[in-house]
Design a protein that fits this description.
The protein has 322 residues and is an alpha/beta fold. The protein is built from 11 helices and 13 strands.
């Protein structure tokens, strides 16, 4: 039989649990993705975010879909729609993923506002957005190009030229400007080729086989991309070393050093939790990503005379064509 003291303690614990549960449910987080559900990079960020937030914060989501629909009119319209969604739902903290969320939403409507924003997935620099604001911090996304070039030089005897082949989208042009400067500083000429269709990509890939290496950028934005046809095409036509910094481009590449999208989501989620616990977002510095994965594609390597050092093969994750 419970004593009156035990009953009071149990009632207190029950009340405390209900208060904590209410507070958890009372916290609302909003994830604004520049792109669409199903785009692999952003899906990885979303997984990291969900894992970190757990049940602490109710996570709402808004997809701007500016990868498949790239025109400025659509981007501005989605920025306005996202702003209206924020004003209507009043989230406690907003996670803004990739460039266009900052370009069309945060910068024009919420610069130095009271609402806290955490950005992630912005490539290389945030200079064009003027970050940080008093209400914004985040993680800048940087590709491991220095490590990638070192590996290319371990594989290819003399590296003088390469080709950067990618979809014709805003973030890829932004990436290429940094790649080009880096390679030029290291005495390697790397022109950029940007395409809108799968047929254009195939033709550019064939022409690039005379270079010392091909650096494959993103295929997202090539709306008629055919995965099976692309696999068959590179198996048949690869002669030079192909590398990438995107893990989903590995079926068409021989080697990759890739960023880890979950890192961005996990970090953004941790910052969101800190803000919800009372931390001033202005005290949290902007950082860059620090983790990488390494991949090799043995099936594709077999179609060429290219040999990757055993020290790399032992460390890398092996990706097959099937």
């Amino acid at each position: 039989m419970q004593t009156s003291k035990t009953l009071i303690i149990n009632q207190f614990l029950l009340l405390a649990a209900l208060v904590l549960s209410h507070n958890a449910m009372a916290s609302n987080c909003l994830y604004v993705s520049s792109y669409h559900k199903g785009y692999e990079w952003n899906d990885g960020i979303e997984r990291g975010l969900e894992k970190t937030l757990g049940n602490t914060c109710k996570l709402d989501k808004f997809y701007m879909d500016t990868k498949r629909q790239q025109d400025t009119v659509h981007g501005k319209k989605q920025g306005i729609a996202a702003r209206e969604h924020i004003l209507n739902t009043q989230p406690d903290v907003i996670i803004a993923c990739d460039d266009n969320a900052s370009r069309y939403l945060v910068k024009p409507y919420f610069r130095n506002s009271k609402l806290p924003f955490v950005f992630c997935g912005i490539n290389w620099t945030v200079e064009q957005y003027g970050y940080p604001y008093t209400n914004v911090t985040g993680m800048i996304e940087v590709a491991p190009i220095e490590q990638t070039l070192k590996t290319i030089r371990d594989i290819v005897i003399s590296v003088r030229s390469g080709v950067y082949l990618s979809s014709d989208v805003f973030t890829e042009h932004k990436d290429f400007s940094h790649y080009k400067q880096f390679f030029t500083d290291n005495r390697v000429q790397v022109p950029g080729v940007f395409v809108k269709t799968f047929e254009e990509w195939k033709q550019a890939f064939l022409l690039a086989q005379t270079a010392d290496f091909v650096l494959l950028g993103n295929n997202a934005g090539i709306n008629d991309w055919d995965e099976n046809a692309a696999r068959e095409f590179v198996l048949k036509n690869s002669k030079t070393l192909t590398v990438t910094n995107y893990d989903w481009m590995m079926p068409y590449s021989m080697f990759a050093m890739t960023k880890i999208p979950e890192e961005q989501g996990e970090w953004a989620g941790q910052v969101a939790l800190s803000v919800l616990s009372g931390e001033n977002i202005n005290n949290i510095p902007v950082v860059i990503n620090r983790r990488w994965n390494m991949y090799v594609n043995p099936d594709l390597l077999k179609t060429t005379n290219i040999s990757i050092p055993s020290s790399i093969m032992q460390k890398a994750i092996r990706v097959g064509q099937e």
